[in-house]
Amino acid sequence: MLNVALPKGRLGEKVYDIFEAAGFECPSIRETNRKLVFENEQKQVRYFWVKPSDVAIYVERGAADIGVAGKDILLEYEPDVYELLDLNLGKCRMAVAAPADFRDDENRTLRVATKFVNIAADYYAKIGRQIDIIKLNGSIELAPILGLSDVIVDIVETGTTLKENNLSVVQTILPISARLISNKASFQFKGTQIEILLCQVRNQVEQHD
Ligand code: PRP
Predict the structure, then answer these.
(1) Which ligand 1 atom lies nearest to the CA of residue 156?
(2) E strands along 20-150, which residues?
(3) How many angstroms separate the alpha carbon of residue 69 from the centre of ligand 1?
(4) How far, in Å, is the centroid of ligand 1 from the Cα of 23?
(5) Atom 21 of ligand 1 has which residue's CA nearest to it?
(6) Which end of the chain, N or C, is less packed with Cβ atoms under 10 Å?
(7) DSSP H/E element including 20
(8) CA distance 7 to 68
């Protein structure tokens, strides 16, 4: 069996559509219930729904052979996995955002609120700007509104969250998209099966582009 960790939610559903079209269908997964594990013995594939930010942990530790994780998670946590393919889904960007009237005072340490402390630290180290990182776990947009930080480093997809909170992008740091990843040992021991899947999934992704 090839164990596949899918990110729970809309992105995961799109990813499953691709896997299905690639010949790795598992029809029971479309039944709406709270079940987390689905398998198709004939196709030798088992899917499980995982919190998106946990996919890389399952794959790194071998609980899943392959999975789909955002480039943001891969850059932030640097899991020891192989990145096999850009699925061109879940496209968004990592950006610095601030209130419209924000002016950076280079003489002061910049207060940056984010979930992505490593990405933010790397970015500001590269541009040589001293910062104070404030690690938050969600609703990052609140931080500059309440004066907890000067700016935020966060994911921007449609831009709606920023707009509705009177914030705007100051600088784009990186483009983000979903990536197919593999456990390193599985890539050796289940190499043939993974290679076949990779090839079929790549065909599907190219057809959609
Ligand atoms: C993410 C991100 C932004 C929002 C961006 O939050 O942190 O808040 O999506 O999307 P948009 O540009 O389309 O508005 P998420 O929904 O993951 O929740 P969070 O507040 O827990 O980070």
Answers:
(1) 12
(2) 37-40, 45-50, 66-70, 82-86, 92-99, 110-114, 131-135
(3) 16
(4) 32
(5) 138
(6) C
(7) helix 10-21
(8) 6
Residue 86 in tokens:
């850009």
List residues near ligand 1 (CB under 6 A): 138-141, 154-161
Closest ligand 1 atom to 137 CA: 21
What does the block give as tokens for 132? 């104070």
Give, as one character, the DSSP assignment of residue 101.
T
Q: How many CB atoms lie within 10 A of CB 147?
A: 8
Q: What is the pLDDT of residues 119-168, one digit of tens each?
A: 999 999 999 999 999 999 999 999 999 999 999 999 999 999 999 999 99
Spatial separation of the C-alpha atoms in residues 206 and 203, rounded to whole Å: 5
- Report CA(42)–ligand 1 centroid distance (Å): 38
- Nearest one of 85, 79, 152 to 114, comparing CA atoms: 152
Condensed to tens digits (0 to 9), the pLDDT of residues 19-57 reads: 999 999 998 898 877 889 999 999 999 999 999 999 999
Pocket test for ligand 1, best of 117, 152, 155, 168 (most atoms within 8 A of CB): 155
9 CA to middle of ligand 1, Å? 14
Residues 77, 24: contact at Cβ < 8 Å?
Answer: no
Q: Which atom of ligand 1 is nearest to the CA of 159?
A: 12
Report CA(196)–ligand 1 centroid distance (Å): 35
Is the pTM of the predicted complex or chain greater than 0.85? yes
CA 201, CA 159: separation in Å to the nearest integer? 30
